[in-house]
Amino acid sequence: QVQLVESGGGLVQPGGSLKLSCVASGTISSIGAMRWYRQAPGKQRELVAGLFFGGSTTYADSVKGRFTISEDNAKEMVTLQMNSLKPEDTAVYYCNVFGRGVDGYRDWWGQGTQVVVSL
Prior knowledge:
Layout: E1 4-7, E2 10-12, E3 18-24, E4 29-39, E5 46-52, E6 57-59, E7 67-72, E8 77-82, E9 91-101, E10 104-109, E11 113-117
Parallel strand pairs: 2-11
Antiparallel strand pairs: 1-3, 3-8, 4-5, 4-9, 5-6, 7-8, 9-10, 9-11
């Protein structure tokens, strides 16, 4: 059973940077999309950034110019570089991959990594 594992979260001061990583424990083929979502306390989960087959990307308006989603094929990893962090970026960040596993196409989700932006 393939699992996604996020890492890189933590506590950072406003204006600081963090880099989140998401690694698959096995092979996911024919990947159509890799996304990062986040969920702040009391709020709905929202899409932060997406990287799609063919290389196109999308970002939430609130993170444009500050966050960058990238893929590392060699490590079967997707990363989220977060710069100029703000307190409102505080949330649990989740990795999501849509692709093909042994049972066909499906979504995979990681368990989440906590990001806290505070003095």
